[in-house]
Amino acid sequence: MNLAQKLNPDAAALSAGHVERCEGSVLVIRSEGAVVRARRAPACLLAPEVGDRVLLAHTGEGRAYVLSVLERDEEAPHRWTADGDVSIEARAGRVDVVGETGAAVRSPAEVAVQAKSISLRSKAAKFAIGKLGLIGEEVVAEISRSKLVSSTIESLAQVVTQTASRVSRIVTEIEHVRAGTVDMAAEKSLMIHAENAMVTAKALVKMDGEAVQLG
């Protein structure tokens, strides 16, 4: 007990000590040659670890609280923790999270992002998703090269429009096309090659041209 507590038993006193071990939410700290059992104050966001030098507050009720971590090994990680929900808010500004070597957001439950607009810039991106659902009014993508590898692709749309200078498709097995009307127009040449070719119709098969060659 220091002089302030001797004059006023209800006054709080400060001391420093080293964390010897953690017993759940209780920290066992050696301070001034004595062993003190203390809890972490809500204001101490940096979670104390074994070996840390911490600042203690001793209340007149005989309780002790860790107010902050004073010293820690430079190579040890820093964990900012809190019990319950945490909200970081900048009322009149923005919030930046910067990591020189990387940054990660992890949660065993949902991660939600809500914003007026989202901007993502990266030299490389990798997504591993079990199931993806996308709902949007308009999607505009400008990509120099796109590669998609999938075992099954299913698409459902009212209207599909594609515009390209060149299109190349390779189907190793079977291709099925079912449509009410198929309209194919080529400005220059239309070539169909097959080992066996069959054209059938219920009503009419018509071939028209300045010259028609068979055989």
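(the above was protein one; protein two follows)
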Amino acid sequence: MLLGRQAPGRCGYAVVDVEATGRSPWRHRVVEVAVVLLDRQLRVEGEFSTLIDPVGPVGPTHVHHISQDDVAGAPRFREVAPYLLELLAGRVLVGHHVSCDQAFLEREFARIGVSLPPVPLLCTMSLARGHLPNAAGHGLAACVEAAGLGWYPAHSALGDARATADLLRHCIRTPSCALTEWAGPLREAAGVPWPRLKQALSRRRAEQVPLILREAPFGPWPLGGESPGLVLTALGGERCPA
């Protein structure tokens, strides 16, 4: 389900973020995933996000603020995997420390027998090292602060993905980082063949996959002000096609 109400395209950027039950893609599981789709000019085309049932403990609640009760009724990764493949296909994969998000996605897909193809990657952490010299660190929060992008709901997949998309725009539009440099990777990404996947057998043909979205108003918020909390939203009829 694209929150932006537009169908996924086949050219541009897919800004991804995952929250997980731990740090190891081999031993831990994705518990939330978000994708923000950007076109070639970095305009938002749509968004996708849901909590994921990891079929086990949710891990460090003190970090990602996801409780065991929150994932009750959430889809398993296999149930949203076909749609995720459609969203990512044909796009440059973007993330803050993108190799980490890529590794978790690769392992989740590998568990269901799907090999993700090699695609061009764009890491906003690497971009920030060159274009935000005054940042206090290279984590997403420090880079967002250095870029003057305001408050965002950190450690929520959609909040981090939106902030990463804004950070990408900030860095890539600086005079020292021309957007035209990415014409080649965009063409390469558009030509990569992607696998397709049928719906999970746990869902009837006409049944939709229920999603659970963690949402919060996006900043900027004034320094010292109280940021709004995250709200769990059962999307009802607004669901991922099975």
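Reviewer note on protein two: The chain is about 30% helix and 15% strand.
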